[in-house]
Amino acid sequence: MEQTQNANKDIDVNNNSNQNLEVRKIRNDVPYKRERVVRVIVQMRNGTTSAGTGFFISPDGEILTCAHVISGTELRNLKAIDFKVNNSIPNYEVNDDKQSQHTKFQNYLTQSIISLQVELANGERVMAEIKKIDEDLDVALLKIAKNDLEKLEKNEGTKNGVAKNGTPFFLLNDTYTPEYDESTFFCGFQMTGGYDNPTQYPFSINRAVVSAVPDVVVAGDRHEHIQLNSINLGGKSGAPLFIEGSNTVIGIINGNMNWSGGIPLCIAYATSLQLIKDRTDIL
Questions:
Q1: Which pLDDT score, from 0 to 100, does residue 161 have?
Q2: From CA 36, how far away is CA 33, in angstroms rounded?
Q3: Percent of the chain predicted with pLDDT > 70
């Protein structure tokens, strides 16, 4: 009797598979999110390319991403080399305060970056500028260069352009407090086997629950992170984090953590927008 009941349940699920698929598609509205997520591409003077994820937060072409995507490496690595690219960076006192550390970081970026581009959902690449950046919380605010934004709005020399009333963007929730076992969703350009070029990483999605809220160092300085029970490989730094079923951003993915034994667990970590709002002037 039990076997018959289970078989009937399986039949019901199969009969409703198309309906269930449509429900899943609507739940996280991936097409809506994809239109507002961009690939960030930074060409460095040393010949390397840094690429990651970003997302629009205003109709004026403002984009939120991670500071380490822009710098091409994590804060701890830059501190190890004292942010130096060549001898033209001033020598600072050993006991630097945060302002002089930030000045070092800005000098490093000025000397290291050749070009900064964002790739829109339609494949169009446009130039961007750094408006604000905070290396401690590992977050950066970019903006599409004025000339490129004007061209996009006028559909001049572009594949598809953007809406004449500005770039599509996400609403932000900067009061969200993470809760254990809360279902979340994030999306961006995650490193995948067979893709050696980070500018070609495919768009992908992740679903995860909040598993912890540790005070740890990930890619910036030590601060509270949202730990997610999901694999997060390179390329998704800067991806928007949502409560599942919502299109409102609550945080930004800023890296992963690989643990002992050489096993690449790559557990995902994010910074809440509430923390960014409280500690910086970026939002």
A1: 64
A2: 5
A3: 79
Give the class (CATH, top level) of 36-154. Answer: mainly beta
What are residue 186's DSSP bridge partners? 206, 241
Give me the phi and psi of 3, to 5 degrees please: -65, -40
- Tell me the β-bridge partners of 256: 268
Using alpha carbons only, give the angle 149, 155, 159 rounded to the nearest 5 degrees: 100
The answer to whether residue 102 scores a pLDDT higher than 70 is: yes
Q: What distance lies between CA 22 and its chain's CA centroid? A: 27
Q: What is the DSSP letter of 205?
A: E
If one looks up domain 171-279 in CATH, what number appears? 2.40.10.10
Biggest CA–CA distance in the chain, Å, is: 81
CA angle 266, 243, 250 (to 5 degrees): 80
C-alpha–C-alpha distance, residues 219 and 48, integer Å: 19
The full set of domain ranges for the chain reads 36-154, 171-279
Displacement of CA 228 from its chain's centroid (Å):
14
Indicate the helix (H) or strand (E) that contains 44: strand 37-44
**Type of residue at 186:** F
Distance CA 255, CA 19 (A): 35
Q: Taking the mean position of all CA atoms in its chain, how far away is CA 139?
A: 9
As a whole-number percent, the residues of the chain with pLDDT over 90 amount to 57
CA distance to 107, 115, 123, 127, 165, per residue, from 102 (Å): 9, 21, 33, 24, 35
CA distance 66 to 142: 10
Give the tens place of pLDDT for each residue, 143-187. Answer: 998 888 887 877 655 566 666 678 999 999 999 998 999 999 999
Measured between alpha carbons, how far is 155 from 158 in angstroms, rounded to an integer? 6
